[in-house]
């Protein structure tokens, strides 16, 4: 392809993207294909000769789209959203065009300095401590791993990086409701799943701090080393909020590293009304949230914040001869702030999103999404056959249909509702288990969701339940 052809196909692709997003409601939200269907339509061998671009675009339409679950469909209520927006898509295009590899300041000073500035903007927009530093990680999973590795190094005086483990019994604490990425991080960090202590939760699924303190005390009595506590603000199952300040005080009392995972809920802290959940954050060590979930910045983009960037850099820095520069120490070389050497220029899309919406535009959207969840919550509460399972906190409604006295029968009924909703193609919802109850999760957080989408879903659920 030459520049002239690129220009022509580029216009076609932008039109295709605009049409796709404009007509997205025509597609079944959840892909309805069976395993192997898509692969069967793809040739076994790569083409020997180049093919016309038109063919590629029409194959996306015919061979790929049937196997796509449409995350940008307003009736995507599953998991947590992975939202995009028009501004974000255009920024990604520019990022791809520039194709910069932003490992150190010198490999693109603008990428490093823009990243620093947009992270400051997020601190400002979300009520985070002004003296913290931010860096973009690819995902929350990586951010949590980075935090646990930093905790591991700090508690062992940066020794495990050099000599490996010599029988230290490091212990990590989180609630029984935390995200599976914590389990994964503990495995990867060499700490071992047996040393991940899952603290029980209260009736709203939030960590019970007195049990955390007991666990730490009993570990200390056995000669084990408390290494890191993870607080979740907005658990994946039910958006439970662990009591941050109470946990922070325990972390300080026992001198334990404290990481806060607000992957989804963090976006809501643009609204001062919800910042009470952040009370005590200045006592923690690291914090993250995902603009790629609920801040309209397409995947991937995790905002990771640290109180002590020296501990972070000391954990990850490497300085081979070929990466030595004269600007070292005067600028941020982000390769030392995380795992990969190579880094995408992710700050650009965040910059576009924040500027195109404005901070107030983002606040308005998030407020609207929360109001939609509150509307659904009211319908559930006032319906004789439905009940809320935990209180709604933000834009997730966790509820179930109850028609029988028997737990298993109700579980089967709710599993049936979920399957039928998803098979209809009209909406996509997922479930979780709360106290052995199979419960439905509905997130009202897609970028373009409107009231009528939630009304349609509620109608559908009631019909199926009947
Ligand atoms: C979604 C989620 C994660 C994982 O996010 P990735 O960016 O996909 O790694 C971690 N923690 C919580 C609470 C989440 O909701």
Structure keywords:
single chain, 466 residues, alpha/beta
Low-pLDDT stretches:
none
CATH topology of the domain at 100-344: Aspartate Aminotransferase, domain 2
Shape: globular
Question: Which compounds are bound in this model?
Answer: pyridoxal-5'-phosphate
Element order: H for helix, E for strand:
HHHHHEHHEHEHEHEEHEHHEEHEEH
* CATH architecture tag of the domain at 100-344: 3-Layer(aba) Sandwich
**Name of the CATH homologous superfamily of the domain at 100-344:** Type I PLP-dependent aspartate aminotransferase-like (Major domain)
What is the helix content?
Answer: 40-55%
Question: Cα distance, first to last residue?
Answer: 56 Å
In which order are the strands of the major sheet placed?
1-7-6-5-4-2-3
Summarize the main sheet: 7 strands, mixed
Query: Given the structure, what is the number of helices?
Result: 15
CA-atom Rg in angstroms: 24 Å
What amount of the residues lies in strands?
5-15%
Structural class: alpha/beta
Quaternary organization: single chain
The strand count comes to 11
Query: Mean of residue pLDDT?
Result: 96
Which CATH class of the domain at 100-344 applies here? Alpha Beta
Short description:
This protein has helices spanning 3-22, 37-40, 53-64, 86-98, 109-126, 140-155, 160-163, 180-188, 209-221, 244-253, 291-294, 309-316, 347-381, 407-424, 451-465; strands spanning 133-137, 170-175, 196-199, 225-232, 257-261, 286-289, 302-306, 386-388, 396-401, 430-434, 437-443. It is of the alpha/beta class and 466 residues long.
């Amino acid at each position: 392809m030459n520049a002239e052809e690129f220009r022509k196909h580029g216009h076609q692709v932008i039109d295709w993207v605009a049409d796709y997003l404009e007509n997205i409601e025509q597609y079944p939200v959840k892909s309805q294909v069976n395993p192997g269907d898509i692969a069967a339509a793809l040739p076994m061998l790569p083409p020997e000769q180049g093919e016309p671009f038109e063919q590629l675009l029409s194959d996306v339409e015919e061979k790929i789209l049937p196997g796509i679950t449409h995350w940008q469909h307003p009736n995507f209520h599953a998991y947590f959203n992975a939202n995009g927006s028009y501004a974000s898509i255009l920024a990604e295009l520019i990022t791809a065009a520039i194709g910069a590899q932003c490992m150190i300041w010198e490999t693109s000073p603008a990428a490093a300095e823009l990243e620093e500035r947009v992270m400051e903007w997020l601190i400002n927009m979300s009520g985070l401590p002004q003296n913290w530093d931010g860096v973009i990680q690819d995902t929350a999973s990586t951010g949590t791993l980075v935090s646990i590795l930093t905790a591991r190094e700090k508690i062992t005086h940066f020794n495990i990086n050099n000599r490996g483990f010599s029988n230290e019994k490091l212990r990590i604490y989180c609630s029984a409701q935390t995200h599976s990425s914590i389990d994964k991080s503990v495995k990867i960090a060499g700490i071992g799943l047996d040393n991940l202590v899952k603290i029980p939760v209260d009736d709203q699924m939030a960590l019970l701090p007195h049990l955390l303190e007991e666990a730490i005390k009993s570990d200390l009595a056995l000669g084990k080393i408390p290494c890191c506590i993870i607080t979740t603000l907005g658990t994946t199952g039910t958006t439970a909020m662990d009591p941050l300040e109470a946990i922070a005080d325990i972390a300080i009392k026992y001198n334990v590293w404290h990481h806060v995972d607000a992957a989804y809920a963090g976006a809501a802290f643009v609204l001062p009304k919800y910042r009470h959940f952040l009370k005590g954050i200045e006592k923690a060590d690291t914090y993250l949230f995902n603009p790629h979930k609920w801040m309209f910045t397409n995947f991937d983009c995790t905002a990771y914040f640290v109180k002590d960037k020296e501990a972070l850099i000391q954990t990850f820095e490497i300085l081979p001869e070929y990466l030595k520069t004269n600007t070292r120490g005067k600028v941020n070389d982000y390769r030392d702030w995380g795992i990969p050497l190579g880094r995408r220029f992710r700050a650009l899309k965040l910059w576009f999103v924040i500027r195109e919406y404005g901070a107030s535009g983002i606040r308005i959207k998030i407020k609207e999404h929360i109001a939609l969840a509150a509307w659904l919550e009211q319908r559930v509460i006032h319906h004789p056959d439905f009940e809320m399972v935990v209180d709604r906190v933000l834009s997730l409604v966790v509820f179930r249909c109850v028609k029988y006295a028997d737990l298993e029968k109700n579980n089967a009924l709710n599993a049936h509702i979920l399957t039928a909703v998803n098979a209809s193609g009209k909406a996509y919802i997922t479930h979780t288990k709360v106290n052995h109850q199979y419960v439905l999760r509905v997130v009202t957080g897609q970028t373009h969701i409107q009231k009528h989408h939630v009304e349609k879903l509620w109608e559908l659920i009631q019909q199926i339940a009947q």
